[in-house]
Write a structure and sequence with these properties.
With about 500 residues, the chain is of the alpha/beta class. It is about 45% helix and about 10% strand.
């Protein structure tokens, strides 16, 4: 039953363990998770449920929801669940509960006015990067009903060509700026925000909003006090979607959908807190833990066969890799076992014409998370049915492969596949999905005894970038006469750091 790399043969497991097709399914309010196409024995899967070893995970969940210090290197709790809770005061003391409720109330009011066209604004420029961009952009794209008066342009990367073209075709009198930055010091975000602020002019200051944990810096930047929507400092960037960082997304999808998104995420929170083993987050964490630690896989593909979730892979890259890309445990010791897989992916049928060739016939096997919607009766010419057909066909080919006398046409198969199907892609299913991915990542951190909430590697790169910028600024104009001269110039700059 073993392959050459000592990985269990999935086809043999499916044949010899027919109960897998039923027992390795987990259903929630809006999703069905199927892990039967992974090289995980049924008995091992059964052992995850009713396991006395889960007491440690239950304690970890209790710590999370009680506000214990779970981000140990920064001495912070991680109470992002309260940002989507109907009654955050159940978990929060004052003044945080009041901050969360007041900021949400004002955000819903502002986003509703923008959505309905009760202001002159027709375009929102959203300046944010990382968690201040990936989550809200994913939600806006997934749930966009096309009926909002405002259009949103997402500005993350410093792209001088794009910003010039945007500003050339926009009217400053109908344009607003949302600056999303926890620290209000992120270089890429503030650079773009300052350019847009100056372009809007003094009359446009009333159309600048800030979503931040640093009210003082937002105020110094020139944001009017009523337009500052604060959130608590314990809100991690990649968990900040649920805060005022989501203002632009809420203005695009409407406050009604936004509230449904929050409510579904809160339902996922409540289930995890009350019944660990019934949570989809727990099942996801367990199968990913097995694939990484027991299966020895160091990659994870995330591919959506519903175009509404085409940005999910980008979101998961940050959530998974920034949270779990650690090599030191909670006690400061070196972690010898694998931690974060390398996450890749995108839209299903697009990738079938690019990287899927390597998945099917390359020399390495890669676990794949395939997502789609069972709602396939809508859309022109049966397109949703086409998407679902491709999902099922690729899942089968990835696992089963294909025999052929001509070896160049053979597919080895045995790629692990985790399948997730939603009843429909809507505010409820997206809210539940994102909350469960957040919790799965936290549970993996608990299993692996690493801190899922800090990102010191990212911070060091930012620090060095600032030092290089300081040196480069001191050298005047960048050389442009020749490539060789530029390389020499860069090397000399590096030596000064």
């Amino acid at each position: 039953m073993l392959q050459k790399n000592n990985t269990l043969n999935i086809r043999a497991l499916l044949r010899d363990e027919p109960e897998r097709a039923i027992e390795m399914l987990r259903s929630s309010a809006h999703w069905r998770l199927d892990v039967s196409r992974t090289p995980l024995r049924l008995d091992d899967w059964r052992g995850f449920f009713g396991d006395s070893g889960n007491d440690r995970l239950r304690r970890a969940v209790s710590d999370l929801f009680s506000g214990a210090i779970v981000n140990t290197s920064e001495n912070q709790p991680a109470l992002h669940m309260t940002l989507r809770a109907e009654r955050p005061e159940k978990m929060l003391g004052e003044p945080d509960a009041s901050v969360v409720k007041d900021s949400r109330r004002r955000m819903l009011e502002i986003s509703g006015r923008l959505y309905r066209g009760e202001t002159p604004v027709r375009t929102i420029l959203h300046a944010g990067i990382g968690g201040s961009d990936l989550g809200p952009r994913l939600v806006a794209d997934a749930l966009d009903p096309g009926d909002s008066v405002v259009h949103v342009e997402w500005l993350a990367t410093l792209d001088s060509r794009r910003i010039s073209r945007l500003l050339d075709r926009l009217d400053p009198e109908t344009t607003a700026l949302v600056v999303a930055s926890k620290s209000f010091s992120t270089a890429e975000t503030l650079s773009q925000a300052a350019l847009i602020r100056d372009w809007l002019g003094s009359a446009g200051l009333e159309r600048i909003w800030a979503a931040t944990a640093n009210v003082k810096r937002a105020r110094a930047f020139g944001v009017a006090e009523p337009n500052i929507l604060p959130f608590p400092d314990w809100t991690g960037g990649r968990f900040s979607l649920w805060s005022s960082v989501g203002l632009s997304a809420a203005a695009r999808i409407g406050p009604g959908q936004w509230q449904r998104l929050l409510a579904a995420a809160e339902q996922a929170d409540n289930l995890l807190a009350s019944d660990l083993e019934a949570s989809t987050a727990y099942a996801l964490a367990r199968v990913l833990d097995w694939l990484v630690r027991d299966g020895g896989f160091d990659t994870l593909g995330a591919v959506s066969y519903d175009p509404a979730l085409r940005l999910l892979a980008e979101y998961l890259q940050q959530l998974v890799m920034e949270s779990l890309g650690k090599s030191v445990d909670l006690k400061g010791a070196q972690t010898l076992a694998h931690t974060s897989p390398l996450v890749f992916g995108g839209a299903g049928t697009d990738l079938q014409h690019s990287l899927f060739q390597a998945l099917h016939q390359g020399t390495k096997r890669h676990p794949m998370l395939l997502l789609g919607s069972a709602q396939c009766n809508e859309g022109p010419a049966g397109w949703p049915r086409d998407q679902l057909s491709h999902l099922l066909g690729q899942a089968s080919a990835l696992v089963n492969g294909k025999s052929a006398e001509d070896r160049s046409r053979a597919l080895p198969g045995n790629n692990p596949v985790v399948l997730m199907l939603a009843r429909a892609i809507d505010a409820e299913s997206v809210g539940e999905l994102l909350a469960n991915f957040e919790h799965a990542v936290y549970l993996l951190g608990a299993l692996w005894e690493i801190n899922a909430f800090d990102q010191w590697g990212v911070e060091e790169g930012k620090r060095l970038a600032a030092e290089f910028r300081s040196v480069l600024d001191g050298k005047g104009e960048c050389p442009d006469s020749s490539l060789d001269e530029t390389i020499v110039w860069i090397r000399r700059s590096q030596a000064d750091i």
